[in-house]
DNA sequence: CACAGGCCTTGACTAACGTCAAGTCGGCGA
DNA sequence: TCGCCGACTTGACGTTAGTCAAGGCCTGTG
């Protein structure tokens, strides 16, 4: 598994993983969806033992199978969640961005990580000690509810993922991915791929070779590819091809 | 979509969905993992407006796209969670049994159902009004934590599902399914399929025809099929074939 | 400038799984 | 008992995506 086990340090398992927070960081963190609406004193409780981890691009945060000690929150940048197969095959289960909480499930239940995490851009990640958090949840109902909402959102993302994998073709999944990059609901759209094509391939569950070919398939539907720039001539046409109902898919 | 849209009543959307609880039912419900450890007075709060829904086999509980009004908890029997594609193709995302909570995510966030629910055996389902529950979560931290644990477990189930779909072949997924039916970790095992083969096929994401053929593939690994009875000659051999690490897969 | 190393693309081939169409088997009601 | 229906199996074939190999293109580096 090249590139995967070559990082010896698992931040998720280090007690001294990050630094304590500076005031400006504190302010930046208070604006995260998880914490907005939380009274300043409750925020202080929640962040009392929190630290901030700075990651370089492609740095591993932790490995599948390891044991969690922190709840992670993405403050900046993007984190890829990888599933690793028995022969070291990697697949990308999700790519998280600012505000997303991850491994809530592992951290709160004490079960081992089901996924590995790797920064796919330079990133900063807030670490909340799991044991402390479990106590805070009892004391701060608002925090518990925020965690529930985060977890609920993550759960729904996974359900969509399962449905897509079972009910859509590769071309449809790619189309859905492209559509997720544009706010436009009709007419023409120009989008830029935010990741390398191999990462996107792993994200939608195909090989890079297949991704190339799948882009060719979409060309007949008015999707032009030029490097990382994608021109969708008719968003509605692509939406129809993907049979995409945003709300429930 | 035969059999799916033919049930006009959506219990999930009816205010008078079930009956209030009898004492014996109350006791049966108090033993659910969601509620054990909850003090009797807190349990009374949580169940104050709860009702019990009795479902016949293959009765629809609600449809994908609908709007949730209740948190559902399986008290008895089994509930299939179905994803429905644009042409009416059905796939089974999960099959829930006693103790499992479902559509927590939809009920608590107020978003539409991502899945349809259908009883796959006669079943009883506890309905907790969503609005009431949201208030209770504030008042009863123990309840919030129980909900978090339930959601976390559900989330991890979905992550496993995604990893399996992306990293395992149909034969491996079937093997993993069979292994999930036996507590044995080595030697010989006899298991009985708890569902029809077409349901199992939808569960692991293949067609019924492919399931038949896949059973033939597993025969070479010492898996004998006789109706619903499955004999696994060597559990470890099958486990190795599936590259199955229970903990993290 | 040459060159190495990624990343992406393309082609030829293969494997896995789906589709369509019979056909079998067992259960159940008239 | 008969006949029907639904669930399952089997065969033939098609489609989709994976595999392997080669080559292009860009970028960073000596």
What does this structure look like?
The structure is a homodimer of 249-residue chains. By secondary structure, chain A is of the alpha+beta class. The first copy, chain A, has 2 domains: 11-165, Jelly Rolls (Sandwich), CATH 2.60.120.10; 168-242, Winged helix-like DNA-binding domain superfamily/Winged helix DNA-binding domain (Arc Repressor Mutant, subunit A, Orthogonal Bundle). Helix content of chain A is 39%, strand content 21%. Chain A contains 9 helices and 11 strands. Chain A has helices at residues 23-30, 40-47, 104-109, 130-139, 141-167, 170-179, 197-204, 208-219, 235-242, and strands at residues 51-55, 60-62, 70-76, 79-84, 90-96, 101-102, 116-119, 123-129, 189-192, 223-226, 229-232. In chain A, the strands form 3 sheets. Chain A has a 4-stranded antiparallel beta sheet with strand order 1-8-3-6. The longest helix of chain A has 27 residues, at 141-167. The interface between A and B is large, with 52 and 52 residues. Chain A binds a DNA duplex (30 and 30 nucleotides) through helix 8.
Q: What value does the average pLDDT of chain A take?
A: 91
- Structural Rg of chain A: 19 Å
Q: Which secondary-structure class do the elements of chain A indicate? A: alpha+beta
CATH superfamily of the largest domain in chain A: Jelly Rolls
Give the % helix of chain A: 25-40%
The level 1 CATH classification of the largest domain in chain A is: Mainly Beta
Overall 3D shape of chain A: elongated
């Amino acid at each position: 598994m090249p590139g995967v086990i070559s990082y010896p340090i698992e931040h998720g398992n280090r007690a001294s993983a990050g630094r304590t927070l500076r005031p400006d960081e504190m302010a930046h963190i208070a604006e995260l969806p998880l914490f907005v609406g939380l009274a300043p004193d409750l925020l202080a409780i929640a962040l009392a033992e929190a630290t901030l981890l700075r990651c370089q691009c492609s740095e591993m945060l932790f490995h599948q199978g390891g044991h969690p000690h922190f709840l992670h929150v993405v403050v900046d940048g993007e984190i890829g969640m990888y599933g690793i197969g028995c022969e070291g095959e990697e697949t990308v289960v999700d790519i998280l961005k600012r505000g997303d909480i991850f491994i809530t499930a592992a951290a709160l239940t004490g079960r081992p990580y089901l996924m590995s995490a790797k920064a796919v851009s330079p990133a900063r990640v807030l670490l909340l000690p799991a044991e402390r958090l479990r106590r805070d949840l009892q004391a701060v109902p608002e925090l518990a509810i925020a965690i529930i909402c985060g977890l609920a959102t993550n759960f729904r993302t996974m359900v969509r993922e399962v449905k897509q994998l079972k009910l859509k073709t590769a071309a449809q999944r790619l189309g859905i991915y492209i559509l997720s990059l544009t706010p436009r609901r009709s007419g023409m759209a120009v989008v830029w791929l935010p990741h390398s094509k191999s990462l996107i391939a792993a994200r939608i569950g195909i090989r890079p070779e297949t991704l190339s070919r799948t882009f060719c398939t979409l060309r007949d539907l008015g999707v032009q590819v030029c490097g990382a720039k994608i021109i969708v001539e008719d968003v509605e046409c692509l939406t129809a091809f993907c049979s995409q109902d945003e709300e429930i898919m």
